[in-house]
């Protein structure tokens, strides 16, 4: 994920955030992560399944195998299955939608809390959390920002941002959605004099 975010895109992302904050009271933080959980249990399941297939093959195949192959095949099959399960597509297809959504929601709220996004003076902090493996976008806003916009506006924003994963270039689509959201925040949270940027645009939270 970090490799995909080139210097040019990173600069464009920061400039877009600055523009939103300049034209509204919102304090926006965008966090991009490759995944929201390790899902190691899925890798173990695939590994064990691979080992079972390998063992079944050497035991019941018509040809005869020497002891070394009988011993090594299940181990190699386990390692292959364990490694394949780390492919994002296979992981995503192996996990129920509800679990993926819960993992993303938990991580987003943890970043919101540990990153101190809820500590802005006017309660205008907002997190745009993008989790790549799960293909989910979560918008979390502090109570000041949450109450300033009608619920229908927040719903439209959430649906619109989730749509970036239907685009050929999701990162470009994310920036486009941020630019599109600027008039919404400007309408309901117009800028005020001497408004201070209290949150870093490149917030890095270690969890």
Structure description:
- This protein is mainly α and 207 residues long.
- The chain has two domains: 7-37 and 96-188, Roll (Diaminopimelate Epimerase, Chain A, domain 1); 40-94, no CATH class.
- It is built from eight helices and three strands.
- The protein has helices at 7-22, 40-60, 67-84, 88-94, 97-114, 143-148, 151-162, 170-188, and strands at residues 27-33, 125-131, 136-141.
- It has a three-stranded mixed beta sheet, with helices on both faces.
- Helix 1 runs parallel beside helix 8 and helix 7 packs antiparallel against helix 8 (170-188).
- The longest helix has 21 residues, at 40-60.
- The two termini are 17 Å apart.
- The mean pLDDT is 92.
Topology pattern, helix = H, strand = E: HEHHHHEEHHH
Largest sheet: 3 strands, mixed
Mean pLDDT equals: 92
Gross morphology: elongated
Structural class from helices and strands?
Answer: mainly alpha
Determine the N-to-C terminus distance.
17 Å
Number of domains: 2
Give the tally of β-strands.
3
Helix content, binned percent: 55-70%
Total helical segments: 8
Taken as a percent bin, the fraction of beta residues is 5-15%
Radius of gyration: 23 Å
What CATH first level of the largest domain would be assigned? Alpha Beta
Strand order of the largest sheet: 1-2-3
CATH architecture of the largest domain: Roll
CATH fold name of the largest domain, please? Diaminopimelate Epimerase, Chain A, domain 1
Give the uncertain stretches in residue-range form. Answer: none
